[in-house]
Amino acid sequence: MTRLAVSAPGEKMAAVQDGGSEPEGEKEPQPELPSDGSSAPAATPASKPEEQQQQQQQTLLAVLQFLKRNKLIESVDALRREAGLADEPDEAPGSEAGGGVGGAAAGSADSADASALLSRVAGAAQSGAASAPAKGGEDQPDVSVVLSAYSQQGDPSLYQVYYSGLKKFIESVLDCHRAELSQLFYPLFVHMYLELVYNNHESEAKAFFEKFSGDQECYYQDDLRVLSGLTKKEHMKGNETLLDFRTSKFVLRISRDSYQLLKRHLQERQNNQIWNIIQEHLYIDIFDGMPRSKSQIDSMSGSLAGEARREANKAKVFYGLLKEPEIEVPLDDEDEEAENEEGKPKKKKPKKDSMGSKSKKQDPNAPQQNRIPLPELKDSDKLDKIMYMKEATKRIRLGPETLPSICFYTFLNVYQGLTAVDFTDDSSLIAGGFADSTVRVWSVTPKKLRKVKSAADLSLIDKESDDVLERIMDEKTASESKILYGHSGPVYGVSFSPDRNYLLSSSEDGTVRLWSLQTFTCLVAYKGHNYPVWDTQFSPYGYYFVSGGHDRVARLWATDHYQPLRMFAGHLGDITCTRFHPNSNYVATGSADRTIRLWDVLNGHCVRVFTGHKGPIHSLAFSPNGKYLASGSTDGRVLLWDLGHGLMIGELKGHTDTVYALKFSRDGEILASGSMDNTVRLWDAFKAFDDVETDDFTAATGHIHLPDNSQELLLGTYLTKATPVIHLHFTRRNLLLAAGSYNSQ
Amino acid sequence: MCMRYEEFPAKMTETREERRFAEVPRESIKLMAESAGVELGDDVAAMLAEDVCYRLREATQNSSQFMRHAKRRKLTVEDFNRALRWSNTETICGYGAQDALPFRPLKEGELFFVEDREVNLVELALATNIPKGCAETMVRVHVSYLDGKGNLEPQGTVPSAVQSLSDDLLKYYQQITRAILGEDPHLMKVALLDLQSNSKIAALLPYFVYVISGVKSVSHDLDQLNRLLHMVKSLVQNPYLYLGSYVRSLVSSVMYCILEPLAASINPLNDHWTLRDYAALLLSHIFWTHGDLVSGLYHQILLSLQKVLSDPVRPLCSHYGAVVGLHALGWKAVERVLYPHLPAYWANLQAVLDDYSVSNAQVKADGHKVYGAILVAVERLLKMKAVSLSASAEGGAAALQGSVGGMMGFRESSPGLSPPPEPLSEPPLGIASHLQAGGAGCQWEEWTPVSLPDMYCELYSFFGDSLAVRFSTGPALGGAPSATPIQSSDTRKEPGSGAANLESTRKMPQLTANMNISPRQDGSPRTEPAPPSLATAPGRSLARSSSSSSSSVPRSRSSSSRPGRSASQSRDIFPKARFPPPQVGPPAFSFLIGGRQMGRRCQGRRFQTSFTPTPSLTSLPPRAYAHKLPVIGRVSKPVRRWTCSHYSLYLPL
């Protein structure tokens, strides 16, 4: 049973434990393997004894081989002794396997494969010995090893019978169980199909696909299309979708009753084929309680690897905001000079109220102030904070009655293709990333962009003068926009630093670049992603930034380190967008595997996995209070999530194309979404959250029933002029800015 | 596996029954192999073909990711190449052009290929035309929605249904239309006022325009027509509305009211004349205030007016509409269309007027209306022409004005203030200039200006004394109507021999004339008053107007220069008119000198004079203006000043 030959030690252990009826001694020889029992399902071996015997023998052989490669001679001897196996020359694995697995139908081919794979694994294990333990249990094992799990097979002609048998059974069970058990169809279908393909039963595989692919849920269509193209064993090796499917167990949530029903049925029918698949490739998360309804299931499924496991969302998330630093607001300002003494205390009070309520008492849900080290505030930052507070007092309170004004910034004459946009927080600058590798920065205000003078000129400046910051600027370079050259591929993400001194850009060339907005030159190129970097974003406190891309790993960087501080691995598809939590302690990533993950910056753990989107996620937005997350995907839907409880709490339907931009208003009352369908839509976020909070949240199972109230929540739809909306931004006074490039085509 | 799929003409076929994707058949593989000098077996080719297909699909799937991240809908060759590059495959060069590559079948044989035209590089390099689209990339604010409100439809399209509007707007629309078309006159007034000043109804404009276009369906209901016209007026006056292309629809609705033989006019008791007058007024207002929008329509309207006028089959009320319409479009329009057409038309009109049979009575009454309208139009034509001539001849007329009584007679309302030269011709310049410049291309070309004396001669031959009285002033005229051009100019320049009261008498006829809104002359007492905006303000001496109208009618007939007409007979028809006491006596007049267009250009001034009824007026001998009301078919003059809520008159001279 070559499926045991896996490189990840954790899985190996799990696999070994799988064989529950094996002699105890088997486990002893591998004390050096770290144990990771998390993935061990409730094992109920149902195979026939002989078959099991054969499999166990194979297992043993594989383990032996692995040990030998790793020069663990003593362990080998011990294992042999325990298992009562004769010494066999390991130089001839083919014959060994042939001898061991005499009766199996495709035994020789399988074992030949197995040995070849094993040798690779061994090599991989050696070379990666140091790194392997460091990686999590979800790391990607070697391709061929993964595939080899499919070598086990039954009669190919019977696959259809098995499947339709199960189908009949599920269709005949009670309604309340049917919806839950129907979840099995898709993963079973895929795995059975892949087994057929892997074992070179091409025609059977095709027939199987044609017969049952129509039964699958529509939101799996994309994956099915990939699958349908896959008819050869050789093709499986390079196929990422397939790898994704194999490397992670497909997670299903089923109530205990339904599960018992299924188990009984399969045992009665001796349907080992299906049972094996369930055992090996599926993770069934059993819960006690009412079976879920079809709509409940549908709202949570759709991801590449099934739903999130319940325990994945159990960790505590400190979603509260950090305490704002106390800043003395100078009262003798130009505005207030006109006012008399009477005006001053008045002015002061509302400020204290607005800020004080947040800052005075620590939010119980907030992380510790120094949970992650944050940069000290500079004087200029304090000035900016003061500006922010002043603007905030003039902020328009939005609501369903008072919708924001919307200003659309159209990029004209963009023949090179606009791929990313960002505004500074104070809305003074706008940056665009383009497909021609350039980054352009515009000043939205009348204030032009100026470079700092050259070093020679700078030395002439009186550094003691009060207006030194003004003097260092070179008036001759003043212009409305600046172009930043440096990337060698389309720029897919841009992000301003909060202090407006830096700009980040991520590109197809695999780098993230840091640009100075004082000199308009590139300061650093962060190399770490070796594949296109789809998105990057500065922390709201500066200094840190996050990036994510095609390599499925999100990285946390600090601007003064050329190597990442954290690597967030776990997604099964490209990381398409990355966002910092307002308190900078967490990072959210959206992925092409149709899940959203929340990572703890402190320790790199994945603390939340959100499933429910039916397409790659292309936009994320945290609510200003840090409690909620909104996500938009290619299916045109926007989903709302409660971070604290790890629950989906809303679904906003309306867009007809990919949602590329999401933004909460400054007070979090309005959610604006911008899409490829050339519209900006405004949603009543307050109501969306409020409606849910009134619900009984004690449903710890997370089986929330979503109200279908998109139409009530939709406050307005605003059309652009043939311009996809790719960025949204609320100014400090709650004016909504949108951006996109006009395409005449 | 590295293959340049696209470089070879490949025979692509749909996969058998499932039709999941295109496949490259093994024949194509063999062909490609042959072209590379390799001989392939069938099985090898088949395997290769399948693999090629798979790799192709894989690359396409990967490339779609680049498309998504570039926020595009269109998969480009560049995306595909990126996917190839990241899978360590050679990229395909030479297909980067933006325009689509046609994939064509070959007629003979099942061969498909990408059309690859030859490009003449020399030609391309030496081409002088600059490629389009090399403007600088920039960011501009393009679409804005204030307070989250705005037209929900993309700009430039007409909303399809009322339902797409916000509830508030919808309610507003319903209330307004209900109020305007409803029974309550007070409500209507309020609604019209709001329609005229509301700044937030831009989104509703199309609907209102649609409602107004319903004039055609209510042509039997004068009241409704009136209300709709008032709606037009309110919309036109609303300073927050940009009418845009909707102005055409409004104009066509107004034109309908002016020109069409409305169903309502079958009943002689219906005062459709007022409606036509009002519509003409509206038309002129639209032209004066929205000249920029409707300038393109000017010729079209002139042509349609002319067509109606020259069509003898049309009923007289249509002709009447055409005349008032021309009058509304300015004296130049009258000069160009009505004046040249007059001789031909005169014959028809004369025939109607000369027919004294009882059965013709109604038609004849209509004929008199037309006659009156023409008279008003040509009078103004003469005056304006004279003014324009004198203005151009004399230049600054200030000096003259002080001494010349005749001058005062013309510019009575602004004694001491010299109106800018060409008060009338200047304002419609927007239109008139079109007439002159734009008219060069069309049929107006043959038109040659007629000198004022000639024109006067000709017109006098039609209208006789009734015209002369209009034109010349002063006591001298009373005895001898000046028939010659010389005389006319003389009289004009004749120093004002009369005293102040004479001057006022000179003025009064004109005022009277203007005040004689058609309903009264029409004979039958009208139940409905004139439209609100036309309503004369109360306070005007009743005695005068009643005396003038009652006494003037017979006299005017007698003073008619046309022989063969007996005054008594004309009296038979018209004295039937039981003049109701002037419904509303206007106490205050505002005289607009120099026209509002000057106000618009900020170079002129509007003069308003409030006339308190002078006691002398009543004591005036009827003679003083009795003969100056020559015809019954007096038409109310277009009111130029709209923004004044009280009755205002435009008195150019």
Automatic annotation (TrEMBL), chain A:
Bias (Gly residues) ranges: 96-105
Region (Disordered): 1-58, 84-108, 329-377
WD repeats: 418-452, 484-525, 526-567, 568-609, 610-643, 652-684
Localization of this protein: Nucleus
Residue ranges, compositional bias (Acidic residues): 329-340
Annotated keywords: Nucleus, Repeat, Transcription, Transcription regulation, WD repeat
Family the entry assigns: Belongs to the WD repeat TAF5 family.
PANTHER family: TRANSCRIPTION INITIATION FACTOR TFIID, TRANSCRIPTION INITIATION FACTOR TFIID SUBUNIT 5
Protein name per Swiss-Prot or TrEMBL: Transcription initiation factor TFIID subunit 5
